[in-house]
Amino acid sequence: MKPTLRWLGIALGFGLLLLAGFAVFVAARGVPHYAVPVVAAPTLTNTPAQVELGEHLVRASCAECHLNKQTNRLSGHQLLDTPTEFGALYSSNITQSQQHGIGAWTDAEIAVLLRTGVGRDGRYRLIMPHYTYLSDDDLAAILTFLHSDRPWVRADPTPSRAQQPSFLLKALTNTVMKPTPLLASTARPVAASSPVAYGRYLVVGRYLCYECHSKDFKSNNALEPEKSAGYLGGGNLLLDQQGQPIRSANITGTGIGGWSPAQLAATLRFGQGPHGPVRYPMPKYSAMTDAEVQAIYAYLQSVPRLPAVK
Ligand code: HEC
Ligand code: HEC
User: Fold this and answer.
1) Domains (ranges, CATH) in the chain?
2) Which residue among 45, 123, 184, 212 is least crowded, i.e. fewest CB within 10 A of its CB?
3) At what angle do helices 290-302 and 261-270 cross, to 10 degrees?
4) 266-299 tens-digit pLDDT
């Protein structure tokens, strides 16, 4: 045997041994637990305006995954548009039920989960997005809505189902899918009077557009979103409702530079793009305000243009 080949054989054997060790480790460890960061309880002013804003945000950001069409509550359901290789996954009951929902969670515990992905029991929550840059005001609005008397959040007795993550997903949570550290401050509100800055906030903080619209979830950078590979240049491989692959669009100037604000508004609100329907999983932000659309428009026109991806 050629010496180089022998070395290769040894290296390979060693690699396999490591791999086997890793497999045993993952199987034994499962989805990891972490220390739960301690944060101050968010301040809720509980005004009607805060409930309205909270509803606006939950409708746009949480309902897609948590709204159960049978109960018409945020009581959770099986997620059918996650890759089958991840196993069977269920969104949780986040209604006010003490036993089956999150009625027993403190606001600080919910805040930590939303920002970092770590639950009150320390278990890393699967699939749930991390709202790293969500402003304290927006977070308070979401919490206020979750405590309100609106039908979606009333206590519902549907139990949250236990996740059945595949080996692959467990392995990913032991390697690349990690909690996001808390930022030193998220207090600073972004002035809606500065469209580009407000638009950036909407794209990276409030609606997480960049997560789907950059190159790959795996190379996204939650702490420095602009450093995500192919920032807003599209090409991220997602799944449609039939489980078929679909790539996200380039939303830098290369992709939508020639659009009018009205065309962007119709796309975001109704999924009506200038070239035809915009398909799932692009969300429909039906309640997006004019100020939001205009700010997103201004920001997207300002980001570095990336080449079209195919
Ligand atoms: C892409 C889908 C998705 C979106 C969007 C989403 N969630 Fe979740 N959420 C999940 C899944 C899946 C779980 C369960 C994860 C697990 O148990 O590992 C979960 C868990 C939770 C939990 C923990 C409940 C528990 O009992 O462990 C809370 C609270 C929560 N989500 C709130 C929200 C809020 C508020 C929003 C919007 C700001 C939101 N989620 C957006 C998918 C999503
Ligand atoms: C869950 C993933 C996801 C999120 C979140 C998301 N998008 Fe999309 N978006 C897509 C996909 C996938 C497409 C391509 C749809 C198609 O080809 O029919 C798309 C298409 C678009 C288009 C149409 C582009 C074209 O050339 O036709 C625009 C504009 C757009 N998204 C903007 C946004 C903005 C702005 C946000 C945040 C407010 C956002 N998207 C959030 C997945 C997402």
Assistant:
1) 48-173 (1.10.760), 195-302 (1.10.760)
2) 184
3) 120
4) 999 999 999 999 999 999 999 899 999 999 999 9
